[in-house]
Amino acid sequence: MDIHTKTIDERIGWLLDLARRHSASFCSPESYLARERYLAEHPTDIVVLKCMDGRINIPIATNTPTGILTPIRNLGGMFNLGWPHLGEVLSNHVHDVVTQGRRVLTLITYHFSKGDKHRGCAGFCFDTEAAIAHTYSIKRQVEHVFGRGHGTVYPIVCGFETDDDSLILHGEQGDVLDVATLKPEDADTLGLRLEALFPDMPNQVRQDLLPLILGNMAHVAEVRGATRTLDIEHREWMICLGRGFDFMHTPNIALIIGPYSPDLADPIRKAAGIIEANMRAGRTPDDGFLLLASVPYAEIGVDRARAELKSRFLSQFAAEVIRAEYPQLADKMLMHTAVLNWRSRALEEISAE
Length: 353
Known about the structure:
Layout: H1 8-27, H2 29-41, E1 45-51, H3 58-61, E2 69-74, H4 84-98, E3 104-112, H5 128-146, E4 153-161, E5 166-170, E6 176-178, H6 190-197, H7 203-224, E7 238-242, E8 254-257, H8 265-281, E9 289-297, H9 302-325, H10 327-330, E10 333-341, E11 346-350
Parallel strand pairs: 1-2, 1-3, 3-4, 7-8, 7-9, 9-10
Antiparallel strand pairs: 4-5, 5-6, 10-11
Protein name: Carboxysome shell carbonic anhydrase
Organism: Sulfurimicrobium lacus
């Protein structure tokens, strides 16, 4: 089914059903045991800093079980660890992982399209070199906070080419490993290649990075065997604000904005501009778009109540920005406000006020 051509009510109904099915799958005994087995074999925690572009779905691109990778999203993959909320989220996450005796691998990503630069990152005005330079500045910040010895937190600059969904790993000495160029017979030498790229990487981290590369090789082969004309163009019809959107496995339906930047209005404005452009170009129907706010909670009671307030704030704030900057688009805005049960990944709608 081509969801992009359906009415806005049908699209929203499809989305909410997708969320329900994702939670049911996540909570199933088979999925639970698969995650536990994976983490037992590959204990390194993996954090992915990435763009709000819905095409950047690293778990799908690496065939990694849901719930293993921790995504942190923002416009263009633009981050600054000096941002108070982002710094706290990342530091607290690393602390929790380290107390379990585990290390953290941080993938700092940029993205581009090899076929057409205008299918690349709009956040950087399709300037891939600028995006790469920014990812290296984030890497330096991670090293400033968590240490340049890389003994516990290992940051990697990682490209994502959206035509093939392929990863490009940037090594410590400037060399790269482009998964799109690998052949099946290269799988046997990947361990040695990773060791050459990252000579100071702890062996366990290297062993836990390897499945992502192998999974990406398999995924790229699948992508090249399919027709993806519609999937590689911008056809987003919803803006997601907050966290907890892992259930969106379909590319190019959503622009996902994390609540990290002190200037939250900027990515909201740019996301709204992309939605409006999609409608104007006929890539999506012009009968409406969805603004979905979601905030996860771990415990009932105070934690959930606070998540409700935060989600309502994010929803109202984004709506005000869109009404002020794109009044005609705002007339087509449908708002859904939710919290996410982190244990079950269940999306729970709440009243807007």
